[in-house]
Amino acid sequence: MIKVLEYKRALLPAFVLLTAICYYWLSYVTIRENFIQLVTLFTILFSIYFCIYKYYSGSYFKSLIAAGILFRILLLFSVPHLSDDVYRFIWDGRLAANGINPFSHLPSEVMQMPPITGVTNELYQQLNSPGYYTIYPPVLQGIFWLAGILVPENVFTAIIFLKIIVLLFEAGVLILLIHILKKISLPRWLSLLYFLNPLMIVELTGNVHFEGVMIFFVLLSLLLLLQNKWRGSAVFIGFAIATKIIPALFLPLLIRHLGWKKGLKYCLLCGLTTLVLFLLLFDATAIHNLLNSIELFFRRFEFNASLYYIVRWVGTMITGYNIIGLAGPVLSFIAACIIVFISFGGKEIFIQNFFSKLLFIITVWFLFATTVHPWYICMPVALAVITPYRYPLVWSFTVILSYAAYQTTPVKENLWLVAAGYFIWMMYAFYELKYKAKSITVQELQLSS
User: Cys-Cys with 211: which of 78, 129, 279, 378 at CB 3.0–4.6 Å?
Assistant: First the structure.
């Protein structure tokens, strides 16, 4: 027994070192077009992740937290290769820093203006959607503005600054998860399911996506709700909505959880918070352009979808053309109806059932969505930590298959791989839902021995 423990202790540094090497290779060497290399590295990372969680999480919690921070610091100086969204973040921030509302002008229009500090043709060429108005809400625009003020010209330094912001919010997410887990009598090391997850590390700190900011505000809101501080909870869910619109999907369930009287007050305070944050940046033109961008997102953009691709195939067979303009809004409406049913269905809401319903709501939304980028799965993973369900962890691995689309120019999805990715995690989700996954938490508690 002693030799086994010594062997495990000796093997952990090797796992950490191999993980660090894979992160370095993935972030500094691997290009998005090299799908075989990318999926191989992710497979190694996820294999080690599951192994470390299973055998070490209960006994080496603090060491593994340090490792998670180390992995993120390792990625601070890499230029994102898997996503070019960061250049739009820098673009918006520099416009705002120069007193120009980023919602009021298309990038192509900005290039016709007199020279603006830091807004160069080189930066413009990096934008992935120069023909569309920005779609990022005010909390994110505030972060972009701060980057524009503090780093007005150097793009690489601006990327590092934004990564540091993401890393700080990631640390906040970890702290909040630990507090929530303690509040619901679950072990703190379950937070490692999120903090060591390779998708979280690569897509957030590595590729500079701000889902971590949204998750931070959602978890802070949930923690305050657990502490019976519903007013504070309402304010911070408003911040979450003003970061990424998607947490608005949770409002029907929150009304059900609090009861109609308090729930409506909650939504009113949340709405006022969100409105104030939007009005800080928006005028009538900006609001119109944002709504136009959101509409275009539902009607034109498609990537790594599930049910939508089936609907699109049937629609194309019938009409002879892509029906996304109709299918996108209709599927969103159906998803909203299902979300309302999930929120108000059932006779009682226990706290564990409440968290599970939050996870089901976000899952339904993405199943009916026309676009599901890999970093979108960060929220389901965070919610999985405080529920008995682990299918989002499988999803966070299989979603990597969507990167096969970038092997060619223009981007072309391999629908067989998309279907395989969804089939794998959905079968696991079906297994968990069928057997309720009631034994998962008990089994995980035994691992700490």
Answer: 378
Report d(CA 127, CA 243) in Å as an integer.
21
Query: Long-range contacts of range 436-444, CB-CB < 8 Å, 24 or more positions apart?
Result: 436/388, 437/388, 437/389, 437/390, 438/388, 440/388, 440/389, 440/390, 441/186, 441/388, 444/187, 444/190
Q: What's the Cα-to-Cα distance from 50 to each of 44, 67, 231, 294, 378, rounded to whole Å? A: 10, 15, 38, 37, 17
* Overall number of domains in the chain: 1
Long-range contacts of 14-21 (CB under 8 A, 24+ apart): 15/48, 15/51, 15/52, 16/67, 16/70, 18/44, 18/48, 19/45, 19/48, 19/49, 19/67, 19/71, 20/70, 20/71, 20/74
Buried b (16+ CB within 10 A) or exposed e, 335-358: beebbeebbeeeeebeeeebbbbb
Q: What is the pTM (predicted TM-score) of this model? A: 0.93
Q: Does residue 105 form part of some domain?
A: no
From 34-48, 129-143, 249-263, the region with the lowest mean pLDDT: 129-143
Instruction: Determine, yes or no, domain membership for 174.
Output: yes
178 lies in which domain range?
A: 2-81+159-447
Over residues 135-165, the pLDDT tens digits come to: 899 999 999 999 999 999 999 999 999 999 9
Count how many Cα atoms sit within 13 Å of the Cα of residue 200 in the half-sphere of its side chain.
Answer: 28
Q: Is residue 440 part of a domain?
A: yes
> For residue 303, which phi and psi values (nearest 5 degrees)?
-165, 130
Q: Cα(332)–Cα(336) distance, rounded to whole angstroms?
A: 6
For residues 34 and 419, give the distance between their C-alpha atoms in angstroms, rounded to a whole number: 21
The answer to whether 214 and 201 are in contact (CB under 8 A) is no
Tens digit of pLDDT for each residue in 277-311?
988 876 667 777 777 777 666 667 889 999 999 99
Tell me if 116 is assigned to some domain.
Answer: no
Dist CA 421 CA 367 (whole Å): 13
